[in-house]
Amino acid sequence: MRRRQRLILSASLFGLAWTGAAAAQQTDVAPPAVVPTVEPQATETQNIAAPTPPPPEAQLPEVAPIIPDEEFKSAIPPISAEDDPELDKPLESIAEFERRQAEAAKAKAAGTPAETTAADVPQVDGTPVPALADGDSVEAIGDAPISDAELAAPLPPLGSFDVTPVEFAEPEDKNETRTIHYAVKVNGLAAADDGTDADLADLFDDLSALHDGDGKADNFAMLRARLSADSELMSRILASEGYYDAVVETRIDRGEAEAGANGAAARNRSITAVIDVKPGVRYTFSDIVIDAKPTIPPGLIHDNFPLVIGEPIVAQRVQGAEAAIALKLPQEGYPFAKIGQRDILLDGDTGKGLYTLPVDIGARGRFGGIETTGKLAFDAEHVDVLARFKRGDLYDSRKVDDLRQALVATGLFATVAVEPQPTGESAGDDSEYVTMLVTQQAGPPRTIAANAGYGTGQGIRLEGSWTHRNFFPPEGALIARAVAGTKEQSLGVTMRRSNAGRRDRTFELITEATRSRYNAFNAITGRVAARISYDSTPIWQKKLTYAFGAELIATREDDYDFALGQRVNDFYTIVGLNGQVGIDRTDNLLDPTKGFRLTARVEPEGSLAGRFSPYARTQVDASGYYPVTDSIVLAGRVRVGSIVGAARERLAPSRRFYAGGGGSVRGFGYQELGPKDPNDDPIGGRSLNEAAVEARYRFGNYGIVGFLDAGQVYRGSTPDFSNLRFGAGIGGRFYTNFGPMRLDIATPLGRRPGEARITVYVSIGQAF
Fold it and tell me: CA–CA separation, 31 vs 33, rounded Å?
């Protein structure tokens, strides 16, 4: 037996239901005759309903009478005044009737027989009805006649009624629970072939209303409703796995009653909701037919269609295969491809199905121009800067998605959409140009942000910023920034142009004024800088980054003068260039779990303290990450820095190297390591080396980190890795959608006088 069925797949359950094509049958029925309206006659009988006569032209069939008219008339008894003289008598008035009834009642109450007339005695067929036992010829309703006065009397108050509660033979137990406890039993899934019974049972358990109830129901109606819903669920699950002939039956089994406490009567029965399943045959594909025009390359559809002949007809697999084609065609130059309605011809005798899928591939397209509409944040010319495709490139939906993400990353839109539009303009090679229509809805361009941190030796640091992301269109941001901390205060303004001339390139102009009060130095600094960079962002983590720029620094700082034996202030004017190159092969920007990073920085500078002293600052950072298990990651880092070309005394204290703190060697205060003056205050050096290793364990949104850090700062320009200081500790992590929150507690190993036993660091992001 073969039957054609149209399979409908439920996306929410990956269920596959089927409906047969039923042919509608029609019966030829003559339309009813139109009956003309007959106006009623103004007679005394016009309110009496009468049948509407048929139209004159109607041809009515002859109908034979059931009995002859003569026989019907002879069966009717004659009624006339001669037969019954009472028929000619006038009717008695209501007042006369009520008078006689009142007199009869009084006579009865007095024990005197009332005057009766023939009219007072009821008769049947002229025969008087004999009186009842109490003298009345008709039995009164109730125990006694009720007068009109009694009927008009008010009802007695409720309080006069006897309201004694009914006492039951067995008192109600107030502590008895009315909740129904039940178990769930599914029979027959083990009969499913191909080893799918475990998967089906797991899926049923996840979605079952009975299991969601945790074995409790308020009443049997609720239990039956859940059982009915689970019966339908099981049918859909089986159909989604190819068991289209499955039979699902349900019942509620009640076990023997359990005796109550202290010999009380049995009350509770064990209740089991039972679902009996007969999966039947699992249907498989007998053939797979894709009805589509030829593509370029020829095997584009078939090579990317994962279904194969002979495999079970599983809804999830069918949906996935169709989605794969709907995704692949736009990636290979077919922006308007559409997947039609699937059709499967099932053969109940063989348990196989012929799968047919129509696919409209549409025209093959190439990227053409860009148009934009809506409430614009910037024009189509700047959209073209963000696009990673050029006119004439083969259409690829992945590049369209990339453009959409780039537009979202600007932060300038409430909503934005990118859609292909056909043009009909030939692009050669049997293809046409496709215009990209960008629909913009500009959103609020201003943002206020803040963050906070704490470190031993660095103190509390609060930072806030105000940003207008489109102050200089397109994407010209104006940023005002302020820092309020126990050791540092600053104000700054930045003008930043994102996507400046090309995708992901940023140009910045920075001006800031800072006041610093650290143990290493006190400074009041003004800085002006320009920078061009190609950096990673939270949306796009780039494998190769770079930055270069120039800066002018004017700063007044104090330094310890060993000749004078005291700290003295000096003024420095510094002009410098800077350049940086980075390689990133990690899997996450803020919380990497595998891969490595390498960054090299060079800063040629010149100090104008008395005479020009050129020098160069160089620094290399490397870090690596190795996942031991899914929840444990080993991480390590190394930093090496050197300043060549000038003596330490010719360097402004703020331009020297320091070590110690949350982003350096934990266990020590900020800038605490390295050479110190007689007051035990750090004075910085011309080289440094640092190293750290962490074991990161994550469980859910929380994590624990154990770490060991090492480092030192040296007077000379070459780090010799001697006299390393070590710090160890433990940290906690709370993982959020914008990165982990970090709390580290550390202690120095081999602590020396004046060094803190415990240091604490709080910030956002991993230590490295």
Answer: 7
Helix (H) or strand (E) holding 546: strand 544-561
SS3 720: coil
At 37 the pLDDT is 38
| CA-only gyration radius of the chain, Å | 49
Q: In whole angstroms, give the CA distance from residue 766 to residue 623.
A: 12
142-147-150 Cα angle (round to 5): 90
Enclosing H/E stretch for 328 = helix 315-331
CB atoms within 10 A of CB 197: 17
Instruction: Give the separation between CA 471 and CA 692, rounded to whole angstroms.
Output: 42
Partners of 746 in the β-ladder: 729, 759
Q: What is the pairing mode between strands 15-20 and 2-10?
A: antiparallel
The pair of three-digit structure tokens given for residue 563, joined into one six-digit string: 């000749």
Angle at CA of residue 636, ends 629 and 687, nearest 5°: 180
- Return the DSSP state at 589: S
Contact 765, 755 (CB under 8 A): no
Looking at 50-137, list the stretches that DSSP marks H as alpha helix, in order from N- to C-terminal side. 69-74, 94-110
What predicted TM-score, i.e. pTM, was given to this entire model?
0.66
Scanning 339-395, the segments in alpha helix (DSSP H) are 380-386
CB 138 within 8 A of CB 104: no
Question: For the segment 526-563, what is each residue's pLDDT rounded down to a tens digit?
Answer: 999 999 999 887 778 889 999 999 999 999 999 988 88
* Backbone angle region of 450, left / alpha / beta, with phi > 0 → left and psi within -120 to 50 → alpha: beta
268-320 pLDDT, tens digit each: 578 999 999 998 899 999 999 999 999 999 989 999 999 999 999 999 999 99
- Rounded-to-integer distance, Cα 659 and Cα 640, Å: 11
